[in-house]
């Protein structure tokens, strides 16, 4: 994984056919996505349950791009090695998931993965300052985590703008997650985000038997975002 600030589209397989993950991943990659976003939920930190390390390991051979694993679980630390061994490229943990996020980020890097830090919509960016040397990505949640298909929370645009200033020249991605569409993506690209997670807006209208809409959806989000990126 080399670092750059080009727009990267990361479809969330939360909106894929759960009985067909391998084919769905091959379809979105063939249709031009950059990363594959994997939402792990525990029914405790968030009010929904998805899947654990064995499933992440099973889908790994199908992912040729970047496997971006978003852990919405508490506690996190006991599971880091299992998700690393499952083949995660990026492991993102929530600032709100426990009292020792510094230790968690250290453990993610020690396990050989890029370290991501996720912030819920109600969390400020002040606590990110002393973690900047330990993160490869900050994920700004633009919905309350737990479900796909929710409405974008506009107050997060300003948060991304301030975070982008704080990051300066450091090689840290800003990822946004939730409610991203061709309408909301440019607001965030303009503010400084480069990794755009989208579930429902990528998978809508398509299927493994009819994957062309995935490509159209990915291109619509990408071109809207690229046109709004600073310097574009
Ligand atoms: C929300 C997840 C998101 C979600 C995005 O808890 O972290 O990745 O799947 O879905 P959409 O794009 O439908 O809001
Ligand atoms: Zn996510």
Protein model, in words:
This protein has a single domain (8-228), classed as Alpha-Beta Barrel (TIM Barrel), CATH 3.20.20. With 232 residues, the protein is α/β, with parallel strands linked by helices. The chain has an 8-stranded parallel beta sheet with strand order 1-8-7-6-5-4-3-2. The chain has helices at residues 21-30, 53-59, 80-85, 101-110, 156-167, 185-191, 200-203, 212-228, and strands at residues 8-11, 35-41, 66-72, 90-94, 114-119, 137-141, 173-177, 195-198. The mean pLDDT is 98. Strand 2, helix 2 and strand 3 (66-72) form a beta-alpha-beta unit. It is built from 8 helices and 8 strands; from the N terminus they run E-H-E-H-E-H-E-H-E-E-H-E-H-E-H-H. The structure holds D-xylitol-5-phosphate and zinc ion.
Low-confidence stretches: none
Mean pLDDT: 98
**CATH classification class:** Alpha Beta
Helical proportion, percent range: 25-40%
Structure ligands:
D-xylitol-5-phosphate, zinc ion
Quickly give the structural class: alpha/beta
Major sheet: arrangement of strands? 1-8-7-6-5-4-3-2
Break the fold down into its secondary structure elements and pairings.
Blueprint (H helix, E strand, L loop, with lengths): L7 E4 L9 H10 L4 E7 L11 H7 L6 E7 L7 H6 L4 E5 L6 H10 L3 E6 L17 E5 L14 H12 L5 E5 L7 H7 L3 E4 L1 H4 L8 H17 L4
Parallel strand pairs: 1-8, 2-3, 3-4, 4-5, 5-6, 6-7, 7-8
The structure holds D-xylitol-5-phosphate (DX5) and zinc ion (ZN).
D-xylitol-5-phosphate binds next to strand 2, strand 8 and helix 7.
